[in-house]
Write a structure and sequence with these properties.
The protein has helices at residues 3-22, 43-47, 61-64, 122-127; strands at 28-29, 76-84, 89-100, 104-120, 158-174, 179-192, 195-209, 214-221, 226-230, 235-238, 241-248, 250-252, 257-268, 278-280, 283-295, 299-306, 309-318, 321-328, 336-344. With 354 residues, it is mainly β.
Length: 354
């Protein structure tokens, strides 16, 4: 059996073993349990409204569409940091990809979304009043709300974190010059104070180059249903999401570079209804649209719409280093700024041997 087939077989086997263990008990369909992975990665893609299922031709393909990892000719490393919602939520991403053989690429990606150092004042308010003596009545007990008869004892305050982690092991390989496929095995960890949950899921993606300019992509996330198992015994299922995308690459000396419009749609089956842009019964749809203008591989200007929210960005191409910035507007939760750095290791010994 060829290496690529063995690799994919092992990934699928691990996933089904985990599912078999988890399905021994009752499972709750968790509508937003995997939402932290829906934010997206990479300043380029996020500046274009998150429309990258068909055009993510770098290390970020491990997230957007693992089949596109086949577009990488040299090892790449990327890192991204963002603070969201008035700097309350920290979002960090890092990944590395390395091509091997003539047609395949492996990648490792890590995502963390967290709210850190959350104060818990329940015990402080429960035990003490303004006079410094323990409360003897029922007023204020157990509600964690400060009123005029209560104060916080700093010795009774403790801090905890709420964090969600995603680890992606990705593989992509070409079948022909026009068609490629890939897959992810992703390990999830959720932590809320002293409580935690583990999960395992599987994504599968494909890319088809209809012409040299027209590219069609698909990524079925949580393809076999991702299972989260909490230490307390609760089991949650993240059902599949289908991401479809199309991109067009227009190169012309008239514009001294490239113009790339792209469009994606997320199809979910979680009965989100009014929480999505459109829905038909339990099936919901969210759109992503963007475009990029690249000037002589030196600078890139971007704009887009991410599920109805405006995005924009800019990219600067330095020797071996790409610096990307993305801006996301949000009427209710504040604006978000994201910066990513991508390093390409283009040493001759790493060159893909076609």
């Amino acid at each position: 059996m060829k290496l690529k087939n063995s690799f994919l077989f092992i990934l699928i086997l691990i996933n089904f073993v985990f599912l078999g263990i988890g399905y021994a008990g009752d499972i709750v369909q968790a509508k937003y349990a995997g939402e932290f992975l829906a934010t997206g990665v990479g300043g380029r893609a996020l500046g274009m409204g998150g429309a990258s299922v068909a055009i993510a031709n770098d290390v970020t393909a491990g997230y957007w569409n693992p089949a596109l990892l086949t577009q990488i000719d040299y090892p790449q490393i990327i890192g991204m940091h963002a603070q969201r919602f008035a700097n309350i939520v920290n979002y960090n991403y890092g990944a590395a990809a390395i091509p091997f053989g003539k047609k395949s690429t492996l990648a490792l990606s890590v995502i963390r979304l967290g709210v850190d150092d959350i104060p818990n004042t329940t015990e402080a308010l429960l035990d003490y009043g303004l006079d410094g003596k323990p409360n003897t009545g029922d007023e204020g007990e157990g509600n964690g709300i400060i009123d005029e008869n209560e104060r916080i004892d700093p010795n009774k305050v403790f801090y905890f974190n709420s964090a969600e982690w995603g680890l992606f092991l990705s593989y992509g390989t070409r079948i022909t010059d026009k068609l490629a496929y890939g897959g992810n095995v992703k390990f999830l960890l959720k932590q809320l104070g002293e409580q935690s949950a583990w999960g395992l899921g599987f994504d599968v993606g494909m890319i088809y180059h209809l012409t040299n300019r027209i590219h069609l992509g698909a990524n079925l996330q949580d393809a076999t249903t991702t299972l989260l198992v909490w230490e307390q015994g609760r089991k949650e299922a993240i059902i599949p999401t289908l991401k479809l995308g199309a991109g067009y690459i227009w190169e012309s000396p008239l514009i001294a570079g490239w113009l790339i419009p792209t469009f994606d749609v997320d199809i979910r089956f979680e009965n989100r209804q009014t929480a999505s842009q459109a829905h038909l019964g339990a099936v919901s749809f969210d759109s992503h649209f963007g475009f990029e203008y690249q000037f002589k591989k030196i600078i890139a200007l971007r704009a887009g719409m991410d599920a109805g929210r405006f995005t924009s960005g800019v990219g600067i191409h330095l020797p071996k280093l790409m610096v990307d910035y993305a801006f996301l507007s949000h009427h209710d939760l504040g604006d978000t700024h994201r910066i990513s750095l991508r390093l390409t290791i283009d040493e001759k010994r790493f060159r893909r041997n076609y």
